[in-house]
Amino acid sequence: LLELIYLFPTLQRPFVLHCKSGADRAGLASAIYLLTQTDAPIADAKEQLSLRYLHIRASKTGVLDHVLDLYEIRHAETGIGFRDWVEQDYDQAASNASFAAKRRK
Question: Consecutive sets of 10 residues in the chain, 105 residues long: mean pLDDT of each?
């Protein structure tokens, strides 16, 4: 995540961002771009991961939504920016575990 965050300001604009299907990784990267490079609200960033772009939250790729949900909760509590959250608070293993527990319910 941090490599992507650090990369965005160095890219020549306009640029194209795409992954194999354009639904999941590209959607998360687009959300991160909005959160770190613009003043877009979290709700707008989260829309990058939507059925409109063929992203299915109920699938295993819903872990990407879960990461944004975790950030949204922390941001509401503290006002922390996404980059700072990733650098200071984000724990990939804990995020994956809490998503797996949520899916089992």
Answer: 96 88 86 97 95 87 96 98 97 95 87
- How far apart (Å, rounded) are the C-alpha atoms in residues 96 and 64? 10
Query: Residue 65 contacts by C-beta under 8 Å, 6 or more apart in sequence?
Result: 46, 49, 57
Cβ distance 28 to 57 under 8 Å?
no
CA distance 29 to 35: 10
Q: Is the peptide bond before 41 cis (omega within 30 degrees of 0)?
A: no
Q: Global pTM?
A: 0.90
Return the biggest CA–CA distance within the chain. Answer: 44
Please calculate the CA angle 41-44-46 and round it to the nearest 5 degrees. 110
